[in-house]
Amino acid sequence: MLTRSKIILVDDIQANLDQGGTILRTFYEVYPALSGARLFKLLEKVAPALILLDIEMPEMDGYEVLKRLKSDERYTNIPVIFLTAKSDPESEVEGFNLGAADYVTKPFSAPLLLKRIEKELFLARQREDLLQTQAKLKEHLDSLETLIHKKADTVQHLQNTVFTTVIEMVEFRDKYTGGHIERTTLYLQALLDEMVKEGVYAEEVAEWDISTVLAASKLHDVGKIAIPDSILCKNAQLTQEEFAAMQAHVTVGVNVIEKIISKVDEHEFLNHAMRITGTHHERWNGSGYPIGLKGYNIPLEGRLMAVVDVYDALITERPYKQPFSHDATFAIIAEGAGTHFDPVLVEVFRNVAREFDRIAREFSSSKKECYFPDA
Known about the structure:
alpha/beta, Rossmann fold, 5-stranded parallel beta sheet, 14 helices, 5 strands, rod-shaped
């Protein structure tokens, strides 16, 4: 059975309600209301497809009724056709400005009234269909976005797995292991947190995604993958030739990262990794390697990594040396301010030195770590 649309007819004159009802009942379910107040009571029980609304009514005229309808989200989408004896343009403009769908002047022609109603109901159905289509499209897009995120997460997981594997290949060479990368990452985070707190190098750090910098720092020794174990884990000081070979790990690491950069679109992470890998053995006074950069010519990432890398090299046992105490390590780094290290960063280090000590103790290694070419 075809369901007929519901229409509420509002007019303060009973004869008009009777006349309108006679015209409309053949095609629609008609609900009469003698005033605006009765309309709103009726709306609590009936959900009309359209409202026919007289303008000139006592107490609450049609304009006021329309304002209330449009201000209530329950009723704002119900099309309203004004019924009025007025035919002046000003009245019509006022009604349209308030949100009226159309005007029909009284006394009205039955065929014209029915056509106006038919048109508005058609437009209302079109709007409803459009809203449903938009809702379905949004649902589809949300589903597609979820799928894209899921695939992106899968790809990211794969990349992280490969990334982690490469790091482990560098760190866990044969029987030597340690946690150097884990500790240096934590030291670096402690330094960066303190820098943010103190406002040190604030403009430059504000441009960074700290999590990206921390992740990139894990690649600082990626070049060691090409260094023979006979050098990397030698149980004594290196010869001049062996030390030169060890220093080459910086250049190897930079070359590895450059090759990756040339094949991918995402460069922020890799650019941080490049600067850290290529400059963390440079020294503030220009005596470092591989280029001999000096002072602020050394990227901030490299200056930071120099502090945490040397701290960990000194505090941990190596095949060729016993570990230094925290106090001795602290003194060496403090003494290196302005020569080996950025003096501003050494001051930051002083403020978090105890946190470095805690990290070193909590994540200490039970095995000797391999060679570190700066300590």
